[in-house]
Amino acid sequence: MSSSDQLFFYLLLSSMLTSTLLANEITDDHLALLAFKNGVKSDPSGALSSWNDQSGHFCNWTGVSCSHKHPNRVTALDLSMLDLGGFISPSIANLSFIQTIELPVNGFSGEVPPEFGRLHRLRSLNLSNNALHGVVPVNLANCSKLRVLDLGSNQLSGSIPVELGQTLLKLEMLMLDNNSLTGVIPSSIGNLSSLTVLFLMRNNLQGTIC
């Protein structure tokens, strides 16, 4: 094989691999969003009516933002205050480039998906003012880039995972208020040197933070 043939073969292979990777990116994020929509059982304002293939690329869907550098990857999902009902699909954890999830003031029930712990780029998670129950997932401790964690005004129970104060060292705002959390406030919370806002009131917690 001549050098020119080798170069052509290399360029062709590179193009095929790039096309395959781009197709996988589109499919993964597209399917993840559709699975999330499938978990929404109530949408009185029709906010998700644009979430279909006839409405164009998913990056143009209501509440969805994508990366400029990686135009087929979702970086933010903001569906705040839309009175959505249903459950939060674990499929969001397949949005591996997502940095912001804003779903406050809706009517979501069910549990906080522990799969969120796979979102290593996540910086802000706001699920406040819903009807979520179950526990605060310990897996969230894997989201080491988190700066904002707001699970306030839900129906969460159990204890605050000690691991949150051990690994979320960039956390600036932690809101777990107005739930049914019990147990002792983890002393590890005191290690969060970047923390400026801490809301734990209206729970059944004990102890202090030094």
From TrEMBL:
Keyword tags: Glycoprotein, Leucine-rich repeat, Membrane, Repeat, Signal, Transmembrane, Transmembrane helix
Primary site of residence: membrane
Lineage: superkingdom: Eukaryota
Record-linked Gene3D superfamilies: Ribonuclease Inhibitor
Ranges for domain Leucine-rich repeat-containing N-terminal plant-type: 28-67
Protein name in UniProt: Leucine-rich repeat-containing N-terminal plant-type domain-containing protein
Membrane-related topology note: Single-pass membrane protein
Localization annotation: Membrane
InterPro entries: DNA_repair-toleration, Leu-rich_rpt, LRR_dom_sf, LRR_N_plant-typ
Signal peptide extent: 1-23
GO cellular component, one term: membrane
